[in-house]
Amino acid sequence: MTCKDARALLTAYVDSELDVANSIQIQAHLEDCAACARIVDNQQRVRSAIQSSSLTHEPPDEFQQRIRRGVRAESGAARGRSRPAAAWPWIAIAAGVLLAIFVTGKVAFGPSGPPSDLVAQEIVDSHIRSTMPGHLTDVESTDRHTVKPWFNGKLDFAPPVEDFAADGFPLTGGRLDAIGGKTVAALIYRRNRHLINLYVWPSTEPASTPALRAIQGYNLVHWNQAGFACWLVSDLNSDELQQLAARLRGSLR
Amino acid sequence: MGIPAVRERASLPDQNQLARFELLIVPHMKAAYNLARWLTRNDHDAEDVVQEAYLRAYRFFGGFQGADGRAWLLAIVRNTCNTWLQQNRRLTPEENLFEAESREPNPEAAVIGNIDRELLRRAIEDLPGDFREAIVLREMEGLSYKEIGAITGVPVGTVMSRLARARARLARALGKSSAGGVA
Asked: Would you call B6 an interface residue with chain A, using a CB distance cutoff of 8 Å?
């Protein structure tokens, strides 16, 4: 492979976007060509510099709530008698822009994952949010007799609230959260220094045995039982998280 | 009494639509904000853009058939940003270019290994918009060339060359001593 051929592919090589055959050729070329190797090295340094510098901008919490309310209001407005067309003069402009997207289908990608993938991702996002200061608990208590009544009137179901302090999984509190547009119960447990969120909501899904998965380094255990969908999420190791799942399943029986 | 029946039929899909929207689109608010913030380069404008993008997205959600809600939303955020930037006649990133290139590199960051986070942030902000959005979508959102091409409406080859040139500029900005080999 000549330098000229290689140069055209170096960036794709850095981004792992090359097929195996081309990758192997580039690798071979890099061993012989210091100039191309330096380009690859520089690109990789820039990449890792960006990724290790936490440069993403976080929207303020208040703003996130505002968007959620805005969407709901828009949904309500759409259901109302008169279409609020006059209130949204940008619609006509947006229509042109978006029509281009839809017509060319440029944003329609490959097959979708099962809906539970979306829920799992939302659970992880919610868990991460909950670990930020001041976001963990609405009601803080190690006493399930305090936590359970707290949910009364806040949810249209009574979540199962059990403490497993004797097994090394103390209940530390509860809060309301939103998953998939539904208000759900979140119960917080601890295992040593690890924080565990249990999300519970009523579900018509058939009962299922716990399934383990990992997203972004967090372990999740999901099962359906006794008319509830249950999700455990934590940075705790999967073995201990499954132990807690087993305790919870025992108590739900 | 035909009206209530009609209204009921109309409201049911709306409720489904809200639930689907909250499941598929609302969770990507952080990605939306991050992209808008990098493209507008200011908090307040980013909030306005994201808010408008969400309303647009909700309006056009009926046409959403793809699987990837994040990419669909980000395409709308990007288009909203562009419209917004044109309407507000802000200095285009390209006009900023010379200033960016003439800036003296921080001696502390002469080696890219010692990254000055603030310098890097500024260097990305100083990139032309096309380059900046490619970098944000690739390095912060982890999207593939194909996805970035779909969102920004350019071929995969263009995505690649923008990333290459963006990284070369960033490498130069971060330390001239190690930029010699970046083409």
From this structure: no
In the numeric block, the tokens 């309303």 are attached to B55
d(CA A86, CA B124): 39
pTM of the model: 0.53
Would you call A63 and B26 a contact, using CB atoms and an 8 Å cutoff? no
CB contact under 8 A, B72 and A63: no
Domains of chain A in start order, with CATH, are 3-52 (no CATH), 115-252 (3.30.200.100)
User: B115 vs A59: CB contact, 8 Å cut-off?
Assistant: no
User: Alpha-carbon distance A50 to A44, whole Å?
Assistant: 10
Q: Tell me the two tokens of residue B67.
A: 């699987």
Query: Which amino acid makes up residue A22?
Result: N
Considering CB atoms only, which of A39, A68, A115 is closest to B26?
A68
Q: CATH 1.10.1740.10 occupies which residues in chain B?
A: 12-88
CB spacing of B183 vs A106 below 8 angstroms: no
State the complex-level ipTM: 0.75
Report pLDDT digits (tens) over A56-112: 999 999 999 999 988 888 887 766 534 444 444 455 555 555 555 544 444 333 333
- Nearest-angstrom CA–CA distance, A177 and A187: 10
| CATH class assigned to B12-88 | mainly alpha
Residue of B nearest to A77 (CA): B14
For CA atoms B58, B64, B69, B74, give the dihedral sign: negative
Q: Are A130 and A123 in contact (CB under 8 A)?
A: no
Q: Do the chains contact at B181 and A63, CB–CB below 8 Å?
A: no
CATH code of B93-178, in short, is 1.10.10.10
